[in-house]
Design brief:
heterodimer; A: 537 residues; alpha+beta; five-stranded antiparallel sheet; five-stranded mixed sheet; 15 helices; 12 strands; B: 218 residues; Rossmann fold; Arc Repressor Mutant, subunit A; 2 domains; 53% helix; 11% strand
Chain lengths: 537, 218
């Protein structure tokens, strides 16, 4: 059977060797400019017929009757391999050959009437064979093409999926790496508040395993004093679906507590329901310590400047104390006179003694106000009425102002929302601004020397304080630089007052700036928010 | 004299005002108190011995400026200054301006009262003198021109004869005029007349130093 197999192999190979078959074959074969599809169809159409002719002639010598099956085979081969055109060409060649060689009269194209039927049958047979064969071929071709396309597409898709899978894996790996390597503690929790993921840094910091922390276990790591606050904040966030944040002390694996800032945000589905909570957990201990140190330094500098300022005001302070003392002494003498009269005027004496108490109390109040101003330690923030605080300052300055022939006027808002702050420090700001205003008006001037302190509301809960003088005003450049430390326009000034004032106001979450006064002069304004934005506790 | 002296207190501190008022009242004096010099200027002051107790440091016009202001307006009232922080230049300026005393707050009762009495005494003396002068002037006004001439010349030391020669009239006429002058001027002797002429002649007076005197409590 080897010869048969070889024949089959050849029968499959020769058209391929000749060049591309039509259709899908085109893509695979190398294009040859001289070997057009038409030339190929001719070769495939004629070659089997030309091979079949000598074989049939040889066979006719052995067998007496026309032996035509080889032509039939050549037509089928041509149709199969070359398609419809090659098949028809083969049919034509076969018919010509058969008519000439095998239909009586032989070796002539004439056809005897007896052979007509025979020839016609042959032609029809070859046509049918050609049609069937080429149709078969075509459908097989189409099938193969479809299969090839499908395979191609499947291969492409598979490759794409493999790539994206790899990318996905890589990305996931990177993400996990990120959550583990990032210098930040990260956690995640379920919508009902169970913390089910903490990154390695968090676990290492608290020195516990994920299983320990799951659920309420996390609370154990928080300082007992802060625990309730944390639980409350977390529960509120869970209930409302709003992001949550807060500061609390968290115990480290080594034992000591450090201050942490925790922030959690919900991840929501399109319909708004919370799917998961994600959060960060940041160590702010050093930050907080630096902040405290800064506040302390600020307070120290403020105190120093306050003491210096008060030094300048000793005359005024003496005046402020001596007034009630003068009254006390004078009343005292009067009291003795009333008692020493004959008969003693007891009603007057009693009245006078009451005055003595009043004025003595007032002197005491002045003293404690001054003492508060000299005190070094920062007072706890308290709710205060700024009008009241400013009134105290103007009492200090009353005498100083009259010495410099300046009238201090206050225009207070009838009611001011309370602000939370360090009373003495805020008074220092006003004191600095007023003294600056007085200094600005030390030169002889044509217009009246007046200084106006105005308080107004600023928004629903905030307040605004404005100090205006009638001095020369500030140039654009000075207005920019005047808040810089050690910048001063006064010959004996240190250049610290305004810079300290600004840091005090900013430590109260407010703003301090310079502007101009209508009609000449400078104005300084500062605002304070109604509720203190910052807790020192 | 039985008239009640007037004491004015100007201090911007309410409790000091009240205390001074109380103190003066307890020793039988009456004081009117003012929170500013403007308020003080607004009231009509009776023609009685007066004294102004003035705070040096006041809003607007200060005490020392007010003293000068009064001088310029020829308002004559002795001033006792009170201050919480007097320094030497301030004191010097006040005393030079004719102030009676410069007291540091808080002050002793005796110091204050002594100063106030002294001021009132001085004002009283000045007033008596002023009144006498005014009476003298009124008498002088009754003289005729020729009588005034005669008086001037007689007081200048001329004898009747010399006066008659200077004026070109008879000596007897001068004698009559002189008799009229002595009568109208109510002068008992020539020496008295000379003193009267001296007082009537405006002469630059030296800056008034504190004049010592006593005041008797009524």
């Amino acid at each position: 059977m080897t010869w048969w197999a070889r024949l089959r192999w050849w029968s499959q190979q020769w058209p391929r060797m000749l060049g591309p078959t039509s259709g899908a074959g085109d893509a695979r074969g190398r294009p040859r400019s001289w070997f057009t599809p038409a030339a190929r169809a001719c070769v495939i159409g004629l070659l089997p017929g030309l091979i079949a002719l000598p074989l049939s002639l040889a066979l006719q010598r052995l067998f007496p009757y026309p032996f035509l099956f080889l032509f039939l085979a050549s037509v089928m081969i041509s149709s199969w391999r070359g398609g419809m055109v090659a098949g028809l060409l083969s049919v034509l060649l076969s018919t010509v050959c058969v008519t000439y060689f095998f239909v009586p009269p032989f070796r002539s194209f004439a056809v005897s009437p007896i052979a007509e039927t025979y020839l016609a049958a042959f032609v029809i047979c070859t046509l049918l064979a050609s049609w069937a064969s080429s149709a078969q071929k075509r459908s097989e071709q189409a099938l193969r093409e479809a299969r090839d396309q499908l395979e191609g597409r499947v291969a492409e898709r598979t490759a794409a999926i493999q790539t994206s899978n790899a990318e996905l894996r890589e990305r996931e790996h990177q993400l996990r790496l990120l959550t583990e390597v990032i210098p930040q503690q990260i956690w995640a929790g379920t919508p009902d508040g169970v913390i089910d993921y903490c990154n390695r840094r968090l676990l290492e910091y608290v020195g516990r395993s994920m299983d320990d922390l799951r659920g309420d276990g996390f609370l154990a790591a928080i300082h007992p004093e802060d625990r309730e606050r944390f639980r409350h904040a977390w529960e509120c966030a869970l209930a409302s679906g709003q992001s949550f944040e807060g500061e609390w002390r968290v115990r480290s694996a080594q034992g000591p507590y450090r201050l942490f800032f925790t922030r959690g945000v919900p991840l929501r589905r399109a319909d708004g329901t919370v799917v998961r909570w994600y959060g960060t957990h940041t160590d702010i201990e050093e930050h907080k310590q630096a902040e405290r140190a800064l506040l302390q330094t600020q307070a120290d500098v403020a105190h120093l400047s306050r003491v210096l300022t008060m030094g300048e005001l000793t005359t005024s302070i003496a005046h402020e104390i001596s007034q009630p003392l003068t009254a006390v002494v004078a009343h005292g003498y009067a009291c003795l006179e009333w008692l020493g009269a004959t008969p003693p005027n007891l009603a007057k004496a009693q009245q006078t003694a009451e005055r003595i108490i009043q004025d003595g109390t007032r002197a005491g109040a002045v003293l404690s106000r001054i003492r508060a101003f000299f005190k070094k330690e920062t007072a706890p923030r308290e709710w205060l009425d700024m009008n009241d605080a400013i009134q105290d300052v103007t009492a200090f300055l009353h005498d100083e102002a009259s010495r410099r022939r300046v009238a201090i006027r206050t225009e207070f808002a009838p009611t001011l929302p309370a602000v939370r702050g360090d009373r003495v420090q805020l008074q220092q700001v006003v004191l600095n601004l007023v003294l600056n205003g007085l200094d600005a008006m030390d030169e002889p001037m044509e217009r009246a020397k007046d200084l106006v302190i105005t308080t107004t509301r600023d928004g629903p809960r905030g307040i605004r304080v404005r100090v205006e003088d009638a001095g020369a005003g500030l140039s654009e450049e000075t207005r920019e630089r005047i808040f810089e430390p050690f910048y001063t326009t006064k010959p004996q000034g240190l250049g610290l007052g305004l810079s300290i004032s600004r840091s005090i106001v900013e430590a109260h979450a407010g703003r301090l700036w310079a502007t101009r006064r209508e009609g000449g002069g400078a104005a300084f304004e500062f605002t304070l928010p109604g509720s203190a934005a910052r807790d020192d506790e | 004299m039985s008239e009640l002296p007037a004491i004015y207190v100007v201090d911007d501190d309410a409790s000091v005002r009240e205390a001074l008022s109380n103190l003066f009242e307890s020793v039988g004096l009456r004081a009117a108190v003012f929170d500013s010099t403007e308020a003080f200027l607004e009231v009509a002051r009776p023609d009685v011995p007066s004294c102004l107790v003035l705070d040096v440091r006041l809003p607007g016009v200060g005490g020392l400026e007010f003293q000068e202001h009064l001088h310029r307006r020829r308002v004559r009232i002795p001033i006792v200054f009170i201050t919480a922080h007097g320094d030497i230049p301030m004191t010097a300026r006040a005393i030079k301006g004719g102030a009676i005393e410069f007291l540091a707050k808080p002050f002793q009762k005796d110091d204050l009262l002594a100063a106030v009495y002294q001021a009132l005494d001085r004002d009283r003396a000045l007033r008596i003198e002023e009144r006498a002068l005014a009476a003298l002037r009124a008498r002088f006004e009754t003289l005729t021109l020729r009588e005034r001439e005669v008086m001037q010349l007689v007081a200048g030391g001329m004898a009747n004869k010399e006066v008659a020669a200077r004026l070109g009239v008879a000596e007897i006429t001068i004698k009559v005029h002189r008799g009229q002058v002595m009568r109208k001027m109510n002068a008992g002797s020539l020496a008295e007349l000379v003193r009267m002429v001296d007082r009537l002649t405006p002469a630059p007076r030296p800056a008034s130093g504190p004049t010592r005197g006593t005041y008797t409590k009524e």
